[in-house]
Amino acid sequence: MAKPVNKIAHPFDKTRLEALLNRRFFYAPAFEIYGGVAGLYDYGPPGSSLQSNIISEWRKHFIVEEGMLELDTTIMTPAPVFETSGHVARFADWMVKDLKTGEVLRADHLVKNVLEARLAGDKEARGLAAQPQKDEDKKKKRKDKAKPTAVQLPDEVVAEYENILAQLDNFSGPELGELCRKHKITNPDTDNEVSEPQQFNLMFASSIGPTGQHPGFLRPETAQGHFLNFSRLLDFNNGRVPFASAQIGRSFRNEISPRAGLLRVREFTMAEIEHYVDPEDKTHERFGEVRDVVLDLLDRNVQVAGSTQVTKMSVGEAVDKGVIANETLGYFLARIYLFLTKIGINPRRLRFRQHMSNEMAHYATDCWDAEIENSTGWTECVGCADRAAYDLTVHSNKTGHPLVVRQALKEPIVTEKEAPEFNKKVLGKTFGKDAGTIQNIVNGMDEAALLRLKGELLQGTATITSSDGREFTLTPDLLTIERKTFKQSIREFTPNVIEPSFGLGRILYSLLEHSFWSREDDVERGVLSLPAVVAPTKVLIVPLSAKEEFSPLIREVSSKLRQAGVFSRVDDSNTSIGRRYARNDELGTPYGLTIDFASIQNRTMTLRERDTTDQLIGSIDEVITTVTELINGSIDWAEACRRLPEYDGTQAV
Ligand SMILES: Nc1ncnc2c1ncn2[C@@H]1O[C@H](COP(=O)(O)OP(=O)(O)OP(=O)(O)O)[C@@H](O)[C@H]1O
């Protein structure tokens, strides 16, 4: 049997994790030898494989499982698209400047850091601080962090700070400025006062073509590429909703002060889904499958009351009680939870936080963020919003291209209403180019206004006024209004969009934190307990040495693993087997196969499990079958232990 895994042998140590990620080249600052640029990172071999494996699982979990329509749209986008979508006017954060040094800080982050540091200082003064900081951590001063000083605050100030922090995302720029003044918040690096908050647009501007006359932007999200292709997608889906489009690609945001590693960068990979539904029917046909999934929910009322206490609730109950606006949104929150926990995110460090009213885009009807806890606190990693009909409506209005669904009605709808009939010839002769304006005014009238106009015309003349204040006098030879019967057999509507939007870097980094630990007997060596499904390498083949006589067997085992679709690597470096395994524990490789002299004679090998370091022994083919099933997830380690005897170090390998 597997030994119990003691993953909390040592408390989480961020410095050690960062050293490991750097040493093993998971990722590193881009352009490092030129001094680097804040917020830009390159992924090395294990980081790239980990990201590809997360993407591949995402594709299976969402695109394949739900039959979504995949897209790959351009990054460079002409300016009018983002003018229409509202990004040019509103895709901005509030920044403040240090009044003496000119250093720029994001206003909400400044308030958060300073108030959190004061609360930490208060805890320390009251003797409630969780862990005294290690000296080496203290030395490594993070620029973006205000340092706590042990000063006790009055109880009402603690309550006020907690209340501000619970609803920080709800404050406007001027309100953040007011908070800085009221609470004497200064730049923690210099203690200088800061300016009033100003808006800073996060899009990278560019221009398309040699003349510089066609401004463009690098997209800050992939979503607009979906919306602009809506009518083609609808056509591809035979004109029916609901359906979803999905896209994985790069996005760019000129973040004000990116200082949190992969959590806030200027170029990152997003995976976005746009799910199109009938606004009158937001049920989801597979909702029953996720009804019982229990989530930690932090709804908006709790936050506005100044608390961060989550409630455990099944998605079914949350939708029934109206906590989550509709079934489709609830369905996606549950699917997001299942995806994140499948790839190794700790469910106890995952919560769903509802946006407060000011935080939510004005057009959205409900919005929840999947937040993952890591060493910097709770971090939004997936946003999931019901964006109503906003995007399709604005693009359609701007371009005149209908972005609507036309649905044949089972029963035609018969209505009677007043209908204007124009004598266009006479109208044109009388009013020239204003004839069109007149028709638009009359066609835009509601039933009551038409009835009034009809009454006036019956009296001989009627006067209408255009939006710019001009008056037009109409007579019955120009226009008649009659009651008519209409039969409508097609319903036309703009679908609503539910959008789950994933930032892969934030998920990847949080996963690395959740997976990292050190063994009790070897604190220097870390282990990344990544699930096999995302681990960069699945199996490490470890021959006793690099001697030629092991080569045929290594080739055979590698080839059989390849045929089984299992990605393996050989480590025949000139160091002890123990060291080689320790190195691969740092890379998160879940299984190891040892090949020894006895393997050549007896055709057996051992199978080592990373977390327990337990080893089993079996014939080469048995071990390959077992490890393949372990990687596929069709058996677990306990089942492998039932199948194969434990290797106690004495059997011939
Ligand atoms: N600068 C960034 N670096 C890394 N990932 C990001 C960044 N900005 C956004 N993301 C990711 O994209 C997802 C969707 O983007 P969204 O626009 O909802 O984020 P946001 O609300 O602007 O994030 P934040 O408030 O943290 O800036 C986020 O949940 C996050 O995972």
Automatic annotation (TrEMBL):
GO terms for biological process: mitochondrial glycyl-tRNA aminoacylation. SUPFAM superfamilies: Class II aaRS ABD-related, Class II aaRS and biotin synthetases. Keywords: Aminoacyl-tRNA synthetase, ATP-binding, Cytoplasm, Ligase, Nucleotide-binding, Protein biosynthesis, Transferase. One of its GO terms (molecular function) is glycine-tRNA ligase activity. One of its GO terms (cellular component) is mitochondrion. Its main location: cytoplasm. It catalyses: 2 ATP + H(+) = P(1),P(4)-bis(5'-adenosyl) tetraphosphate + diphosphate. It is found in: Cytoplasm. It holds the Pfam family HGTP_anticodon. The keyword Ion transport does not apply. Its EC number is 6.1.1.14. Residues 125-150 are annotated as: Disordered. Residues 175-543 form the Aminoacyl-transfer RNA synthetases class-II family profile domain. Homodimer. Belongs to the class-II aminoacyl-tRNA synthetase family. This is glycine--tRNA ligase. It comes from Obba rivulosa.
